UniProtKB/TrEMBL annotation, chain A:
The chain crosses the membrane at residues 20-39, 80-103, 143-164, 170-190, 230-250. This is Succinate dehydrogenase. It comes from Streptomyces qinglanensis. It comes from the Bacteria. Keywords: Membrane, Transmembrane, Transmembrane helix. The lineage of its organism: Bacteria, Bacillati, Actinomycetota, Actinomycetes, Kitasatosporales. The keyword Transmembrane helix applies.
UniProtKB/TrEMBL annotation, chain B:
It comes from Streptomyces qinglanensis. Pathway: Carbohydrate metabolism; tricarboxylic acid cycle. This is Succinate dehydrogenase / fumarate reductase iron-sulfur subunit. NCBIfam families: dhsB (TIGR00384), PRK12386.1 (NF009052). Its cofactor is [3Fe-4S] cluster; [2Fe-2S] cluster; [4Fe-4S] cluster. PROSITE patterns: 2FE2S_FER_1, 2FE2S_FER_2. GO terms for cellular component: plasma membrane. Belongs to the succinate dehydrogenase/fumarate reductase iron-sulfur protein family. The keyword Thylakoid does not apply. InterPro entries: 2Fe-2S_ferredoxin-like_sf (IPR036010), 2Fe-2S_ferredoxin-type (IPR001041), 2Fe2S_fd_BS (IPR006058), 4Fe4S_Fe-S-bd (IPR017896), Beta-grasp_dom_sf (IPR012675), Helical_ferredxn (IPR009051), SDH/FRD_Iron-Sulfur (IPR050573), Succ_DH/fum_Rdtase_Fe-S (IPR004489). Residues 12-99 form the 2Fe-2S ferredoxin-type domain.
From TrEMBL, chain C:
Residues 601-628 have a biased composition (Low complexity). This is Succinate dehydrogenase / fumarate reductase flavoprotein subunit. Residues 511-538 form a coiled coil. It comes from Streptomyces qinglanensis. Its cofactor is FAD. The active site is at residue 322. Residues 10-430 form the FAD-dependent oxidoreductase 2 FAD-binding domain. Residues 601-631 are annotated as: Disordered. Keywords: Coiled coil, FAD, Flavoprotein, Oxidoreductase. Pfam families: FAD_binding_2, Succ_DH_flav_C. InterPro entries: FAD-dep_OxRdtase_2_FAD-bd, FAD/NAD-bd_sf, Fum_R/Succ_DH_flav-like_C_sf, Fum_Rdtase/Succ_DH_flav-like_C, SdhA/FrdA/AprA, Succ_DH/fumarate_Rdtase_cat_sf. GO terms for molecular function: steroid dehydrogenase activity, acting on the CH-CH group of donors.
Length: 260, 262, 663
């Protein structure tokens, strides 16, 4: 666009701090989750131990699911589905997180090195960002947000079911109930702190003064939104933890300590 | 006036990029540093004692005008707001010009790119039916745009943004964080009448100012000396507003139908 | 001499701060081709530093406010030395100028009913300052900048050229206003980036260059404030008035050295901050002058009560006028009771909870934390007086902003004199920029249109002379042979000369002035002028800061001499001029303007290697002869209807009996 030459500095960057630490840690963290969740999603086993169902398998949309009393057995897909039922439902939270504004930053930096860190040259010859297919599809984030609301609602129901004991009697709690409670709180916080949510709640308005209720909600969501990154990691960890807890129960590695 | 004890003053090692369009390189300096000084003071001391023709751009020296943008140890910063005390005394400080723009001389770069981009964003459109003195706006309605108007135009965000920093060829298509934020500011202005004139800032953000190039990696927010949340409060909301227009199937369908019937 | 590019414009504006940009917008809206030249980048002018607000009697917060009240406050603040017509126009037009900004996109803080919010400020009877947090100056400059851009967009629509009718020459310096047959014919400039010379030919030139603070060691002003417009006007044959009035703000930062002089806003004291010396004493109680005794508290208890209950308690003495506080701080430091870095302590940490401080004084909290590593919620600040604003400036016609005696030359903003009298009220500066910036642009456009057919030509000789002067610091074609022989070149470092100038002005013509010291200052200025002539720089013309400073020295020295001479001459204390040896305000002096002109010498064509010319004596001739001639001029009597806005008892304090009875 303009003629002119930049200062002749050959080094791709002159940063002296450990700039690679953050993207490396991010990449490792995400990778660990991908490995774990892939194993668990394809396992098609050890995802239910009364009264807990792993969040990876809820709701269960195929007929080949373990029967979960009062639980989310909705065989919408019928019998033909032979693979792990987790794959049917995980698409939604996966899509939500994949198009999430925080995770985008995380993996663009961590995996694509675009850029690896601020003011550190990226290794790509060409860059078009999210202007064309497939990355232009990131714009559909809000639909995954709607789906994520549904999933969160179901997981909330699952958590409620956790207030039963192994005999499906209500009014009990175990350590698992606490794990599920923690998880669902983080899932909700993460989901509601989403940028699309902030936009839909109030960000799209021109005159806050004409919508005082939405303005106030926008403020709350904004507060949550400031911690979107933290919530993204916390909820990622908690969902894996909840699943792992169920796995340990289902495989009989541990027994659920009952509180009452 | 009491004089500061000797221990507060020390010699620091600096590498300063010197040169122009024809080339240049890092030059070594050893220079006195006193307690409480900022990097710009040291550059000024170099000018006064060792390199009188060392070029540096500065003005208010209080972080309010955004003139003294440069890169210190590879990070875009204001020279006047970077205190020497944040560095170790035996650390060598490397000071270089902004990388994303053509160099003029030494630490001075040609920031004309930004002024060209500023011109490409259509100005505020005053409402036809309101005269001067008749504007009524609520504080909560101006708050968002006011945050963006804190911008001191230091262009650190423009410099650090990899879209143009690493890809000169994108400069034509991409306005950069500062001017996408300007689009957001106007789109959120409670009385901007652009739409009445047929200007849709939401779609032009994407179609004309290159919003899609932004991959929200937040370096602009990281470097902003005014701590404006450029990504979270301007760029992402703008992306969402563009999505309202273009990627909302319901809106898309509505537009299709309306176009057919009209 | 190498070829120098020439361009033709209708109006040239020197300076792109609030006044310059407002003038440019007006001239362009009048349909004229307008060029703006500024030393910094477009949008970086010193106006961005203004915090408080724009004074305009819109009456949004208190309906009792109107232009008459604003006029009254302004005259009182200036101790009745103001050009009353300017003060009147300013008070009348300020609201329109503020409202207009909104139509250009400015976003001021709002009242609950959606109008522009207005805040209280020292000397203003009602809440009057339109503001945006504490960054009003930034909002002003950005709004004007964006208005200029929008005009350029209109021109682009029409002609395909953004710069067809308004162009900003950024990072360029003007070294001469050129004249042909006593009329302005253009400006001689250089581009800082390349060192390239160029000439803008234009029948009308508006000076809007701001102030002179860089002649003082401790100042809140930026490097641009080297008195360029003041000096250009003098050299073009115009005169300066009221140059003895320099406002020192009592509270500037004193430590660390790098930020010495940066302002600590008055609101710190307004919100409860107190001044203490090294012994921990609230010393201001010892400095309440007799005339204020009735209005200010005598005990700490009473003073502390005022913040909550101003009706039954008197004001704390920390809130005395700026000059009184500055003087008191000065005295404490001189008596050896100063803080470690040569100021006094300003403390809010023991006065309010940390949260309150952060909420009420966010920018101060930020400023001290970032720049001084001081947490003002936990420890006191160190503050001392800092040079802030010059009330004096180019002698202009009140209505048209035209410089008297030089057809085609206009001045607006801080570079113009008269509006603020002997002391400026906070908030009146930004409104001044807008009101008189617009007027200067308007009348410059009218003047240029009136002279459209007879555009003055710029002669080559003038350009060559201007170029020679500008190249002098490189030692190229500089001093004549015999002169070089006479002084076998002890080349001077311009930075050292500048530092010595700043020290001299700060120490000898600072807040408190004495005859002997000012005489000594004039001696020193003469020496500095000699040394500045020998200033040499290394390197080349491309963005060479040493060269730029060497050229600015001429302006600073001229302006400094004006300040020193006028201050020495005015044997009274008033507003921004305090004489230790003449501590009283004298009604006889009220009517007098001290007018500085370039000393009469052998006719000096503008652009000639100027220093070489003038060494003539002046009538006030203390010390060595200088370059400035000083004369006393009577001010026109204040118009009757304006005088009637005041109570007789008040006027008695300012006006002589003769003036009062002559009506």
């Amino acid at each position: 666009m303009r003629a002119g030459t930049r200062a002749a500095i050959a080094a791709p960057h002159l940063r002296t701090d450990r700039w690679w630490l953050a993207p490396a840690a991010t990449a490792l963290g995400l990778l660990a989750f991908v490995v774990y969740s892939t194993w668990r999603a394809f396992a098609n086993a050890d995802y239910y131990h009364a009264p807990y169902v792993s969040p990876f398998y809820s709701p269960c949309l195929a007929d080949n699911c373990t029967t979960m009393k009062g639980g989310p057995n909705w065989g919408l897909f019928g019998e033909w589905w032979g693979l792990s039922p987790a794959l049917l439902i995980l698409i939604f939270p996966l899509g939500f997180r994949l198009t999430c504004y925080y995770y985008r930053k995380a993996y663009y930096r961590g995996f694509w090195a675009s850029p690896p860190a601020c003011a550190v040259a990226e290794p790509h010859k060409k860059y078009t960002g999210e202007t064309r297919f497939p990355l232009i599809l990131q714009n559909v984030h809000r639909y995954f947000f709607y789906a994520a609301l549904l999933v969160a609602a179901i997981l909330t129901w699952d958590t409620a079911l956790g207030f039963r004991n192994e005999e499906y009697e209500w009014g009990h709690m175990g350590l698992g109930t606490l794990v599920f409670l923690g998880n669902i709180l983080l899932i909700w916080a993460y989901t509601l702190s989403c940028h699309s949510c902030r936009h839909i709640i109030g960000g799209r308005l021109r005159h806050f003064s004409k919508h005082p209720v939405r303005y106030r909600m926008w403020g709350w969501v904004g507060k949550l939104n400031e911690r979107h990154m933290l919530l993204a990691w916390a909820s990622l960890l908690s969902v894996a933890l909840a699943d792992f807890y169920v796995y340990l129960l289902a495989t009989g590695t541990i027994t659920d300590p009952r509180l009452f | 006036m009491t004089t500061a004890p000797d221990t507060t003053s020390y010699d620091a090692h600096f590498k300063v990029w010197r040169g122009d369009v024809d080339g240049g390189g890092l030059e070594d300096f050893t220079v006195e540093v006193n307690e409480g000084e900022v990097v710009l003071d040291i550059i000024h001391r170099l000018q006064a004692t060792q390199a009188p023709d060392l070029a540096v751009r500065w003005n208010c020296k209080a972080g309010k005008c955004g003139s003294c943008s440069a890169e210190i140890n590879g990070r875009p910063r204001l020279l006047c707001m970077t205190r020497m005390s944040v560095f170790d005394r035996d650390e060598t400080l490397t000071v270089t010009p902004l990388r994303a723009f053509p160099v003029v001389r030494d630490l001075v770069t040609d920031v004309g790119f930004n002024y060209e981009k500023a011109r490409q964003v259509p100005a505020f459109v005053p409402p036809q039916d309101l005269g001067p003195g008749e504007y009524r706006m609520q504080q909560e309605d101006v708050g968002r745009s006011q945050e963006f108007r804190k911008c001191i135009e230091c262009f650190l965000c423009q410099d650090t943004c990899h879209v143009v920093r690493d890809h000169e060829e994108n400069k034509t298509a991409f306005a950069g964080p500062r001017f996408l934020m300007r689009v957001a500011e106007l789109d959120m202005h409670p009385l901007d009448a652009a739409e009445e004139t047929g200007l849709d800032r939401k779609s032009t953000a994407q179609e004309e100012h290159g919003l899609g190039y932004c991959n929200i990696t937040k370096c602009c927010t990281e470097v902003c000396p005014e701590h404006i949340k450029i990504t979270d409060n301007a760029l992402i909301p703008l992306k969402e507003r563009a999505a309202d227009r273009k990627y909302d199937p319901l809106v898309w369908l509505g537009n299709k139908i309306r176009r057919r019937t009209s | 001499m190498a070829h120098v590019e020439r361009q033709q414009w209708d109006v040239v504006i020197v300076g792109a701060g609030g006044a310059g940009l407002r003038a440019a917008i007006e001239a362009r809206e009048q349909g004229l081709r307008t060029a703006v030249i500024c030393k910094s980048l477009f949008g970086k002018a010193h106006t961005v530093m203004a915090e408080g607000g724009i004074a305009a009697s819109m009456g949004n917060v208190n309906e009792g406010d109107n232009w008459q009240v604003h006029f009254r406050d302004t005259m009182r603040g200036g101790k009745f030395l103001n050009q009353w017509r300017m003060a009147e126009l300013h008070a009348r037009e300020a609201p329109d100028r503020v409202w207009e900004l909104e139509t250009w996109g400015a976003l001021f803080d709002r009242t609950p009913d959606g109008r522009i919010s207005q805040r209280n400020f020292g000397g203003h009877e009602y809440p009057r300052l339109a503001h945006v947090g504490d960054r009003t100056g930034l909002e002003l400059i950005r709004t004007l900048q964006q208005k200029v851009v929008s005009l350029q967009q209109e021109d682009f629509q029409e002609s395909g050229d953004y710069e067809a009718r308004i162009k900003v020459f950024q990072e360029c310096t003007v070294t001469q206003v050129l004249k042909e047959d006593d009329r302005v014919s253009g400006v001689f400039c250089y581009e800082r980036e390349s060192g390239r010379f160029f000439v803008l030919e234009s029948p009308a030139v508006v000076l809007a260059t701001g102030g002179i603070g860089k002649s003082f060691k401790v100042t809140s002003n930026s490097w641009e404030y080297t008195g360029d417009g003041h000096a250009l006007a003098l050299l073009a044959g115009a005169s300066l008035i009221n140059m003895e009035f320099v406002q020192f703000h009592p509270t500037g930062m004193v430590w660390p050295p790098s930020v010495k002089g940066i302002l600590v806003t008055e609101s710190v004291r307004g919100d409860g901050g107190v001044l203490r010396n090294s012994e921990g004493k609230r010393f201001m109680f010892d400095y309440v002058p007799d005339v204020f005794k009735e209005k200010y508290a005598e005990s700490e208890q009473e003073a502390d009560g005022w913040y909550e209950d101003p009706d039954s308690n008197r004001r704390p003495p920390e809130l005395l006028p700026r000059d009184e506080v500055a003087r008191a701080i000065n005295a404490e430091v001189k008596a050896g009771r100063g803080s470690p870095h040569g100021g006094v302590f300003l403390d809010v940490s023991t006065r309010m909870p940390a949260e309150t401080i952060k909420r009420r004084l966010p920018s101060m909290h930020h400023q001290f934390r970032e720049l001084a590593d001081v947490d003002i919620t936990a420890e006191p600040m160190e503050v001392g007086p800092t040079c802030h604003y010059v009330m004096g400036g180019v002698d202009v016609d009140s209505d048209t902003a035209a410089a008297r005696g030089v057809p085609g030359l206009f001045a607006a903003g801080e570079v113009a004199g008269g509006m603020h009298g002997s002391n400026r009220l906070g908030g009146n500066s930004l409104s001044d920029l807008l009101v008189f910036g617009r007027r200067a642009g308007l009348h410059a456009a009218e003047y240029a249109r009136g002279h459209a057919d007879e555009r003055p030509r710029v002669g080559d000789a003038q350009i060559d002379a201007a170029a020679a002067e500008a190249l002098r610091p490189f030692g190229v074609g500089s001093a004549p042979e015999e002169e070089r022989a006479r002084e076998p070149e002890a080349a001077e470092n311009p930075y050292t000369v500048h530092q010595d100038l700043q020290r001299s002005m700060n120490e000898l013509v600072g807040i408190i002035r004495r005859e002997e010291e000012m005489s000594e200052a004039l001696e020193r200025l003469a020496e500095l002028r000699e040394r500045a002539r020998r200033a040499k720089v290394e390197g080349h013309r491309q963005f060479n800061p040493g060269w730029h400073l060497a050229l600015d020295l001429r302006n600073m020295l001229l302006v400094s001499e004006c300040v020193a001479r006028a201050a020495l001459n005015r044997t009274e204390s008033r507003g921004g001029h305090t004489r230790d040896d003449h501590p009283e305000m004298d009604r006889e002096w009220r009517r007098a303007n001290l007018v500085c002109t370039l000393a009469a010498t052998a006719p000096e064509p503008p652009g000639a290697g100027s220093e070489a010319a003038a060494e003539a004596g002046t009538e006030t001739g203390a010390g060595r002869a200088g370059r400035i001639a000083l004369r006393r001029r009577e001010m026109p009597p204040i118009r009757k209807d304006l005088l009637e806005l005041f109570e007789k008892e008040e006027l008695i304090k300012y006006l002589t009996d003769e003036e009062l009875t002559s009506e």
